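Dock magnesium ion; give full complex structure.
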Amino acid sequence: MKTTPMLGVLAATALEFSAVTPQIQPHARAAELQKWAVHDESRPMPPVVDPGPAGPPAPVPADAIVLFDGRDLSGWTNAKGGAAAWQVRSGYMEAVKGSGAIKTTRVFGDCQLHVEWASPAPGVGSGQDRGNSGVFLMNMYEVQVLDSYKSKTYADGMAAAIYGQFPPLVNASRGPGEWQTYDIVFHAPRFDGRGALATPARMTVFHNGILVHDNETLTGPTAHKARPPYKPHADRLPISLQDHAHPVRFRNIWIRELQQ
Ligand code: MG
């Protein structure tokens, strides 16, 4: 059958997507993503939206699993499974430079995750070197933690970005030292019996109560200067928090498991 050049272009595009996300209708934002190199400095920054002032810690739903209640790190270890070496102070924990990431002792797949964090005050440094940490679903899919209040970096690495892939829809950041919230709905990727990707990971994220990712489809694990493809992994893995050498604080972390 003869195809017009236009149809040829469409077929080629469809083929590209089928290689990345088989059996998945390409998401409009995934198409948009193809235009931008990872950490592309020319990618537009999202508009700023003032979320209003910080409040007290959010209430914990009755069916939530509390991962950190401000008192101790009993539910956490370092990357190797040893004692988590972050500082616990009055009601919060703080990343300790050089101590490495910490991860939950429990493992999770599909979930609703609530995290509260604050970047150091006064703010020091610039770009990625300013209040950097991260919330990693399954230890590999990062929602960036960064001081992005009146501070610029590449769009896919700012606060609430799905790191290296998707900037948030808006910049809903509060200033240094102010408590901020992430509410994340995460659907783990699925792999078939042969280890091939069946369905990719998806995330919906609210930053300080404002929608910043609307059922976004991830291209694979998040990474620095790369967009690696999916690799098969377990159905459930730990949540982890990044040590990026900055004393970022966390409090009131809880999770609700979704039916899997
Ligand atoms: Mg980070």
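Observed: The chain has one domain: 6-16+31-39+60-257.
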